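Board notes (copied after class):
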Amino acid sequence: MKKIHKKVAIVIPTHKTKHESDEELSLRCLDNKLGEIDKFIVCPDKADPQISLKNLKTIKFENFHFETWLNYNALLKTKIFWSKFIDYEFILLYQTDCLLFKANIEEWINLDYSFIGPPHINIKKEKLSFVGNGGFSLRKVNDHWKALNNKKIYLFNTKRQTLKYLLGRKRLVYFLKTIFKAFLIYIKKRINDKNYSFKESFISNSIYPEDIFWCMFGPNLNSDYKICPAKKAISFGFESAPQLAFKLNKNKKPFGCHNWTHYDKHFFQNLLNDK
């Protein structure tokens, strides 16, 4: 652990001052498994989170970033957010409804992916779908920084996962509307700012959940952006349908999970207590 504790920071977003007992369990679990690693509470200016963890610091952003779900998602697509962690190679995003079952973060860092998170699951077919859950996720800082700091769009780096995601009629129509909206704003802003790029407009004006955004379009924004395959990511984390996820992971615990109180609290508690 000593070798990697300065390579990765754990980022804990919250807008609360006091947390529920389940959230406190999530935080204790984090401290027990990864106590030596630097941790950062990310919260609004007005908040004063009552959280006690080892190696903990607080980073505050303007209140509006936490006022709505859309604003929070937008924050995670900004240079101001990623600049706070530029001294680290990776961040582990750990929302207050996550759990850790293992301490093997070094194993995941060494894979050197831009984004690793619990994969979505096709419950009807009992198959893994695509990686795109970000509440518990490991992200490479420089790959996001590069995506936000160049003006190129790499259309020919579109991944199969993205094409499959956009196949549905509703998703394709939504994507085309997003492109059209971004283009109109780009044209308008270019009148006063000749340096403003279509890429900037697309990033700031798309309202996809930020985890879906990065997993679908990250490779188009940075040619080096790599998403962990779902077959490997299932060992990283579970989210929805955890009992099915456990089966697909050959009845083995993952590194961690997200949204444990929402999907199957009893199952996750048993997984945590099972030695």
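Comment from the instructor: The chain has a mean pLDDT of 93. The two ends are 21 Å apart (CA to CA).
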